[in-house]
Specification:
It is a single chain. The chain has 390 residues and is of the alpha+beta class. The protein folds into two domains: 184 residues, Beta Barrel (Hypothetical Protein Pfu-838710-001), CATH 2.40.320; 175 residues, CHAD domain (Alpha solenoid), CATH 1.40.20.10. It has twelve helices and nine strands. Strands 5-4-3-2-6-7-8-1-9 form a nine-stranded antiparallel sheet.
Length: 390
């Protein structure tokens, strides 16, 4: 594992090489233009697990590495021409073992790319033997980095070099952190810029109609964030998150009555019900396909392969239903109605709403709804006798 150092902001790669050449027997090996692409799932599963997936490519090599974000340590480092979409498709078993439990059914997608010059150097002793290997990563928009690879049997040479690097005039800083956060910021991205979780703080005294519009707006953002992934069928979780946001919106419109105007609630309740219906068949087939290996492995080994025609049938049917779904999500009905919903949610709320529950605060509305459902459960429960059917 190399030791990593960060250049001070004023020190360029060329100045560093010139100054180090005056102090050591330096050998310049090569310079290559490189680009490093970072990968993760749409919902940041690798980042959440403290892992950075990086593919570094030049004209002469293509190296995939899994990096521990906490200490910069290489978890896996292997030559790989490209990055498969799913963990199960990696040719390297070690990569599969690291990625599959984290990613599960999610696709690996490119997050951002950094371009840099890779400058490789050796430090030689008086016998012209390599005692330390160096790699400079020369970035245009980020601080340059130096990777120091000690050579076995020449520990003192490495220790002496490190003392030189951290002292004037170089004053390099030892680091362990990944460049991923800086790369994201440089590309206008932010970790966890998507989450399917409905994690919103609402003040209890907030007016019900305003709170509902805020919640529906959050759910609309989730629908829109997953829309393209559903249409292109990147992975099955785009449709799952899309449907959850649709279902939550429909449930709110159905259960929180007297908050929004009746014509609004009625129109969009029907629309989100339609969305639930048209996405259902594809999602059902996705679930069957996701669980297919489990179903297959539950059978005696001698007849497992007999299920393969069923898998082919399910896969073909899924592709057909997905094409039909994608067509509906490109239709005027979907695009225009969703745009109308967004427009309504952005409109300022009426200062004096006339709907029965609109001016209640959300605690009052929640209390009323919970009390109503509690009494309903009690009433229905009283109808149960020891002779009632299961």
């Amino acid at each position: 594992m190399p030791l990593s150092f960060e250049f001070p902001s004023h020190l360029t790669a060329e100045a560093f090489i010139a100054q180090l050449d005056n102090k050591t027997n330096l050998q310049l090996l090569s310079r290559h233009d490189c680009h490093r692409t970072y990968y993760d799932s749409f919902d940041w599963r690798l980042y959440s697990a403290g892992i950075s997936c990086e593919l570094t490519q030049s004209k002469t090599s293509s190296l995939l590495a899994l990096i521990d974000l906490a200490d910069g340590r290489d978890l896996v480092n292997t030559e790989l021409a490209g990055v498969p979409v799913f963990a199960k498709d990696f040719p390297n078993d070690t990569l599969q073992q690291h990625l599959a439990p984290i990613l599960e059914m999610r696709a690996l997608l490119p997050l951002c790319t950094l371009n840099f010059k890779d400058i490789q150097l050796n430090i030689l002793n008086d016998d012209q033997k390599i005692v330390v290997r160096l790699v400079i990563e020369d970035y245009e928009q980020l601080t340059d980095r130096l990777l120091v690879y000690p050579v076995k049997g020449y520990d003192k040479a490495s220790e002496h070099l490190i003392e030189t690097l951290i002292s004037p005039p170089f004053e390099l800083t030892a680091i362990k952190h990944s460049l991923l956060p800086a790369a994201l910021q440089l590309n206008g991205r932010k970790a966890y810029d998507y989450s399917s979780k409905l994690n919103i703080d609402l003040a209890p005294e907030l007016r019900a109609d305003i709170a509902c519009k805020y919640l529906y707006s959050h759910l609309l953002n989730t629908i829109k964030a997953n829309e393209q992934g559903v249409i292109t069928d990147l992975d099955s979780e785009f449709l799952h998150d899309f449907r959850v946001a649709v279902r939550r919106t429909r449930s709110g419109l159905s259960q929180l009555k007297g908050v929004l105007p009746n014509n609004i609630s009625g129109r969009f309740r029907d629309f989100f019900s339609w969305l639930g219906q048209i996405t259902g068949p594809t999602r059902d087939l996705d679930v069957h396909l996701l669980n297919f290996e489990h179903y297959k492995n539950s059978l005696p080994e001698s007849i497992r392969e007999d299920l393969n025609p069923l898998h082919d049938f399910l896969l073909g049917t899924q592709k057909k239903t997905h094409q039909e779904l994608a067509k509906k999500l490109r239709s005027d009905k979907y695009i225009n109605t969703l745009a109308d919903w967004e427009l309504y949610l952005k409109e300022p709320s009426n200062k004096q709403p006339t709907e029965a529950n609109a001016q209640l605060n959300i605690k009052e509305l929640a209390d009323h709804r919970i009390w109503k459902m509690f009494n309903r459960v009690l009433k229905e429960g009283q109808d149960i006798t020891p002779y009632s059917p299961p």
